[in-house]
Amino acid sequence: MVKVELEGIAVSGDENQFLALLRAPSGELVPIRIDSMQAISIAAGRSSERPERPLTHDLMTSILELLDATLERVDVTDLKDGVFYAMLVLERSGVRFEVDARPSDAMALAVRTNAPVYVAERVVELAAMRDDDMGGTGGAEA
Asked: Are 134 and 32 in contact (CB under 8 A)?
């Protein structure tokens, strides 16, 4: 696994599609296609402003807090047939749990909890692009 940073959200070629851009230590970008609602949720989670009412991922964060569980990390584990797969790695009372999740949902939670995001090396090899390759619509589904 390679630790990545969420560089930002970019508009894809289709106005209702966005890309979550994950920066690998090598400098390459791993673009993951997300829909507009996930893009809004990730952006809201990165903002210091909070909505009047909690968004879905704010609610999930509150539930984790009430259960005294923490999101230890997000692992983007695979890329199959153009679809990315992720796991939430949770901890509660010394017990680790892994929960299957869409990468977009996992990132929306990660930005709210300051959890690190990791990508499997194989996924980086398959999906990474250089900055100058990002002119098109690139990315696979989350």
From this structure: no
Give the CA-trace dihedral at 6, 11, 12, 15, to 10 degrees. Answer: 140
Token couple for 68: 């005294």
Q: Are 17 and 31 in contact (CB under 8 A)?
A: no
Hey, what amino acid is at 85? Answer: Y
- Per the model's pLDDT, the better-predicted residue between 90 and 142 turns out to be 90
> How, if at all, do strands 29-35 and 140-141 pair?
parallel
Structural tokens at position 108: 């929306």
For 75, the token pair is 């692992």
Class at the top of the CATH hierarchy for domain 2-134: alpha beta
Domain positions in the chain: 2-134
Reported as a pLDDT band with limits 50, 70 and 90, residue 133 is low
